[in-house]
Design brief:
This protein is mostly helical. The chain contains four helices and three strands; from the N terminus they run ααβααββ.
């Protein structure tokens, strides 16, 4: 009799987990994987960097001899990693800076006056 009760408890427990929906106990009911992808993360901005920030990054690269890594730019310009990432992305998109290397070997070179 005890074995039957134990089996009944196990099957009820397993059955109740399946009724939860997604099968992922950490996810809220009704949430889809794409929900968070459509919203920017907290503390991030989708606005383009201002001209002052772009000028500071250009100045930092120029001061390093026209070629600098991200850590060099952050230290010389006195900006955050996030600000540096946004500024570098904008300068790359505008063609003002060229990226070479990958990972820790990434360097940014100025393409011309600006």
């Amino acid at each position: 009799m005890r074995a039957q009760n134990a089996l009944a408890c196990v099957s009820l427990t397993r059955g109740s987990r399946r009724r939860g929906g997604s099968g992922n106990p950490g996810r809220r009911a009704g949430a889809s994987a794409g929900d968070s992808a459509s919203r920017p993360r907290a503390g991030t901005s989708t606005a383009a960097p201002d001209k002052t920030l772009l000028a500071a990054v250009r100045q930092a690269i120029a001061a390093a001899g026209g070629s600098a890594g991200k850590a060099d730019v952050v230290a010389a310009a006195g900006i955050s990693d996030t600000q540096c990432n946004a500024a570098i992305a904008a300068l790359l998109a505008a063609g003002a800076v060229t990226k070479t290397g990958a990972g820790r070997d990434t360097r940014y070179q100025l393409n011309g006056p600006g």
